Amino acid sequence: MSDSTERLFTSVDLGGLRLPNRVVMAPMSRVRSTPEGLATAAMAAYYAQRASAGLIVTEGVHPNRVGQSNPLTPGLHTDEQTASWRQVTTAVHANGGRIFAQLMHGGRISHPDTTGLQPVGPSAVAARDSRVFTPSGPQQVPVPRALTTEEAGAQAAAFAHAARRAVAAGFDGVELHGANGYLIAQFLSSSANLRTDRYGGPVSGRIRFAVEAATAAAAAIGPQRVGIRLSPGAGLWDAHDTEIPELYGALLAELDPLGLAYLHLEATTDEQTLLGLRRAWSGPLIVNPSAPSAPVPAGPKSAGHWLGLGADLISFGRAFLANPDLVERLRIGLPLAEADPATFYEGGDTGYLTYTPYRY
């Protein structure tokens, strides 16, 4: 094991939260909540099984009703939803873990059959060739309603309201989902954002929504409890970036002085651009080495590579699904079980609570 890879199992400070290792469980949608967006006992068991991670980041949690992307995804905007998460945070903490809630506003990636509301976005532009899950099955995403200037500010503030609820529910912090083509990424995108007001146009306008959301969340619960995830150049859900180094460089120039807990970067653009963003960010950096479309999950080799290039922590997604004891397996070189894609989103305990630690 290289020196860089060995660093994966050393402790690190994250906004005053001491992590025993640098392995992060990346956010992954599992669609196991109730129809009302409540967290369940099965969800508590699932996250508690993985509490040996240095940090767990939950699946995307919608901050308001119009922000829900898919059915059976959890929320943090009602008293009942907030109370339901306490069983999750209590179970993780009882097992010695730390957990952030990922706040995810779907924006235009939603459907009226799911929320009862027309999806909203920066502009009235639908994601091309994109189908979203609904209670009756996959359907083409509709044209969203363009947010007014005042409404855009209110949607940015929704992240702060959900952040307060997250802390009330016992979470150690929140991660703003600014990646993968959802609302924050839609505002960053030059294909999804055709606005001419202060939230659109040049780079300075397109980064405004992300900056306001992060600033509001930091003011609500303290910057040391707020992280943000970005996927430069990913192009997911038809939200395409242009001027990637300039766009994300300008965004980090605004976010860096806030003193956030971390920046979580997906390796979705070229390495030189990512290294430039590392230099632009003075705080802790989490890197997810596997792009969402990568054929294999990240492993020790890619983790060591990015730790050697300046990352502070490494996040693992699919590897955590089938390996609740992933940290131990990576530490001593045990083989990894493979997750069954057929059970990623189908509901029930199979493929959710049925993966076990390594059996010697």
TrEMBL record:
**Which UniProt key words apply to this protein?**
Oxidoreductase
- Lineage, top-rank taxon, reads Bacteria
User: Which of the seven top EC classes does this enzyme belong to?
Assistant: oxidoreductase
What sequence ranges are listed for the domain NADH:flavin oxidoreductase/NADH oxidase N-terminal? 8-336
Q: Tell me its EC number(s), please.
A: 1.-.-.-
Q: Name one GO molecular function term.
A: FMN binding
Q: Which InterPro entries match?
A: Aldolase_TIM, OxRdtase_FMN_N, Oye-like
What is the protein name given in its UniProt record? N-ethylmaleimide reductase
